[in-house]
Write a structure and sequence with these properties.
Elements (H helix, E strand, L loop, with lengths): L24 H4 L3 H21 L37 H17 L9 E2 L2 H7 L8 E4 L3 E7 L5 E7 L1 H5 L2 H13 L9 E7 L2 E7 L6 H6 L2 H6 L4 H10 L8 H19 L6 E2 L8 E3 L5 E3 L6 E2 L10 E2 L11 H6 L1 E2 L1 H17 L15 H10 L15 H17 L10 H19 L1
Parallel strand pairs: 1-5
Antiparallel strand pairs: 2-3, 3-4, 4-6, 5-6, 7-10, 8-9, 11-12
Helix pairs in contact: 2-13, 10-12, 10-15, 12-14, 14-15
Bound molecules: adenosine-5'-triphosphate.
The site of adenosine-5'-triphosphate (ATP) has 20 residues, from β2, β4 and β6.
Protein name: non-specific serine/threonine protein kinase
Family: Belongs to the protein kinase superfamily.
Keywords: ATP-binding, Kinase, Nucleotide-binding, Serine/threonine-protein kinase, Transferase
């Protein structure tokens, strides 16, 4: 079974603390005429998807990695600590301090928390010389190992592959480290330190034990079983409670709210807002209690400085096919609303269980968001609900509201998309109503 949310030790962030009903009118009390307007909008958005999407993920290198801009000072996170979920609890701080103290003691090259330089000996010890049995994943950056620090803290050790390093990893490595080291939030994967040694580039981050959201949506147990390199991951995930059960809509809503909080935190990072740029289900890691943690800041980039009058950052297009903001694709101008777009795609993925692009589906269903928006516009949203979920009244109502929000997130023009903070508020209210319908 998945871990229960009811556990009193679950420190899930409640946000906002006391929502005012009027501020949530979009989702809570949509009249039939306004719902019709939304449906009309859904029809036009569904039309836009044809032009927006790049070829199927399987056929396209899903992104290229290059250097990103370097980040400025290192003291930004305290200024955003009012955002729900910033890990400023005493317990969190104590744990954090103990980790860094331990690491500092172990490392002669130690630096600021979050950017501690490990030695190669530390890494070899933590990963048992990169033991294949501790390999937990493989991504664009390289190989990921589970490791353990001397104080017992479990870590994920991300070892860059040589080809990535040859291709200009220097900038990306710096980008990932600098972004990670400055953020601290319950729903963001913490960075413990890094290592640059000859041609090795290694990042040490918080180990999140329960697989990725994509794996959960696919209930990938059978695939994992057949994969020898993932045998360790299988045993790890079994221990942590992932046994192939379907994620309930309740849990999916919780995950969406966690992700919305994490991105809100990044975007409202007062001194140096950060655009994640690669929000997708395989970058959402889950804890035993199905709390979501957003990972992979390899593409993270500073947002434009509002005070300077700049509203966007001009950049080469990066991200993953299916999640990419069409306005960013067209203009190369990146804003926080590009993350909002990807988040809208993620919402559709959460309720349908499908990947953003499904090359094996019927033609009209290959672009999942377009298909879902069309069904929503036709008043038959329930037909896109993940078939593994019950078609109950509560699920139907929540589905409608989540799709309504997703529709706003994927608006063709970024000015029409909500902020991530607004998304969190709307989802908070959807969850509240959902729970009321369940009792
Ligand atoms: N912090 C972590 N804790 C536990 N497992 C992790 C962690 N980070 C990554 N993994 C595992 O390693 C896999 C590869 O992760 P990685 O971030 O390198 O690539 P990715 O996000 O899957 O792909 P890409 O780098 O192409 O975006 C993940 O799918 C996950 O299974």
């Amino acid at each position: 079974m998945y871990g229960s949310r009811k556990d009193s030790s679950d420190t899930r962030v409640k946000y906002p603390p006391s929502p005012s009903p009027s501020s949530y009118s979009t989702s809570s009390s949509t009249s039939s005429s306004s719902r019709n307007r939304v449906r009309t909008a859904a029809r036009s958005v569904a039309g836009v998807f044809v032009a927006c999407f790049t070829p199927p993920e399987e056929e396209t290198p899903h992104h290229s990695r290059h250097s990103s801009s370097a980040f400025g000072g290192s003291d930004a996170f305290s200024s955003a600590s009012d955002i729900s979920g910033a890990s400023d609890s005493t317990e969190g701080k104590k744990r954090h301090r103990s980790i860094y103290n331990t690491v500092r003691n172990d490392s002669p090259h130690s630096k600021e928390p979050g950017s501690v330089k490990f030695s190669m000996a530390d890494i070899h010890k933590a990963t048992k010389n990169f033991s294949p049995t501790l390999k937990v994943g493989q991504g664009g950056f390289g190989t990921v190992y589970k490791g353990q620090l001397p104080d017992g803290t479990l870590v994920a050790v991300k070892r860059a592959k040589k080809s990535m390093y040859d291709k200009n990893l220097g900038g990306e490595f710096q980008s990932e480290i600098q972004a990670l080291s400055k953020v601290e939030h319950l729903n963001l994967v913490k960075c413990y330190g890094y290592l640059e040694h000859e041609d090795e580039r290694i990042v040490v981050v918080e180990y999140v034990p329960n697989g990725t959201l994509r794996e959960h949506l696919e209930c990938e147990l059978i695939r994992l079983k057949s994969s020898s390199i993932l045998a360790t991951q299988l045993s790890n995930t079994l221990i942590s409670g992932f046994n192939g059960n379907v994620l309930s809509l309740d849990s999916r809503l919780d995950i969406a709210i966690d992700v919305a909080h994490a991105i809100t935190y990044l975007h409202t990072y007062t001194d140096h807002p950060i655009i994640h740029r690669d929000i997708k289900s395989s970058n959402i890691l889950l804890t035993e209690k199905l709390r979501a943690k957003v990972a992979d800041f390899g593409f993270a980039r500073l947002a434009a400085d509002a005070e300077s009058g700049q509203t966007h950052v001009s950049t080469q297009v990066k991200g993953t096919a299916g999640y990419l903001d069409p306005e960013y694709l067209r203009t190369y101008q990146l804003t926080e609303k590009s993350d909002v777009y990807s988040f809208g795609i993620l919402l559709v993925e959460l309720v349908t269980g499908r990947r953003p692009i499904e090359p094996k589906q019927e033609l009209d269903q290959r672009i999942t968001a377009r298909w879902a928006m069309k069904r929503y516009a036709d008043g038959v949203a329930i037909s896109v609900l993940d078939p593994r979920l019950e078609k109950s009244d509560a699920n139907g109502v929540a589905l409608d509201k989540i799709l309504e929000l997703a529709l706003q997130c994927v608006a063709a023009h970024r000015r029409n998309r909500p902020t991530m903070r607004r998304c969190a508020e709307v989802l908070w209210n959807v969850r509240k109503e959902y729970k009321q319908l369940l009792v």
